[in-house]
Amino acid sequence: MASLVSARAGGTYQPLLVTNVEIAVYARAATVELADQLARQSEDAAVAAIVRLQGVFSTFDSGSELVRWRSGQLAEASSELVEVLAAAHRWWALSEGTFHPLMGVLRTRWLRAEAEGQLPQQDELDALVRELATLPFEATQTGVRRTGDCTGLDLNAIAKGYIGDRAVDAARLPGGTEVLVNAGGDLRYWGGGTLRVGIETPAAPGGAPLDVLELGDGAVATSGPIHRGFQVGTCRTGVSFSECN
């Protein structure tokens, strides 16, 4: 029986999902050349899946399916958009609103505060939160439908993980042994090995990791205001109002 050899393909891609997307694929075959070919085919399949689904969920592309559906230009959503909308609705309900697919409304207000250098008043933020008490769409066993103004709806907090899962699924071609997709904090790994994932220390970005996870066949996501927070004057988000005033 001939022995098998492994090869790796992959790289970092921009501007997929408005972040750096790292893809690494390992394949095994009878020759290095064949293993390399298989790995590259898997990599191409992962990239193609991300590009296609980016066209479904992007909030920056006026022609994306999500943008057209939320504005009413598109009456019926695809099965993929329905699946993620339904998941967003479910997690909104289970978390009692802590997870919210219209949180972009608050983000827009903080971006304005950052540009103006002036913190928003607490009563204004409270009013915005009250407006977010319900969702402007509902999910049922037969699909999803708009029940209000969905123009501020985005699925960024959940769609990136979904796209990573689908990219790994697409890359699992014959001969493949391991697949990694890391999309700016949303990481999905498939394979027989163990992946060591460093968690950045919030107080010392770029320094020694706070902890290291050992990940088998699975996923992990991290988030925080270190790289994506708002700077309003001398105040950084994550600091209380009393410390900023």
In short:
By secondary structure, this protein is of the alpha+beta class. The protein has helices spanning 32-57, 65-70, 79-94, 104-116, 122-131, 156-171, 241-244; strands at residues 5-13, 21-29, 137-140, 143-146, 176-183, 186-191, 195-199, 211-215, 218-221, 231-232, 235-236.
What does this protein structure show overall?
The protein is an alpha+beta fold and 245 residues long. It has two domains: 5-58 and 159-221, no CATH class; 65-153, T-fold (Orthogonal Bundle). Helix content is 37%, strand content 24%. It is built from seven helices and eleven strands. It has helices at 32-57, 65-70, 79-94, 104-116, 122-131, 156-171, 241-244; strands spanning 5-13, 21-29, 137-140, 143-146, 176-183, 186-191, 195-199, 211-215, 218-221, 231-232, 235-236. The strands form four sheets. It has a five-stranded antiparallel sheet. A two-stranded antiparallel ribbon has the order 3-4. The longest helix has 26 residues, at 32-57.
- Quickly give the structural class: alpha+beta
* Gyration radius, rounded: 21 Å
Order of helices and strands: EEHHHHHEEHEEEEEEEH
**Euclidean distance between termini CA atoms:** 73 Å
Largest sheet properties: 5 strands, antiparallel
What does the secondary structure layout of this molecule look like, with pairings?
Blueprint: E1 5-13, E2 21-29, H1 32-57, H2 65-70, H3 79-94, H4 104-116, H5 122-131, E3 137-140, E4 143-146, H6 156-171, E5 176-183, E6 186-191, E7 195-199, E8 211-215, E9 218-221, E10 231-232, E11 235-236, H7 241-244
Antiparallel strand pairs: 1-2, 2-5, 3-4, 5-6, 6-9, 7-8, 10-11
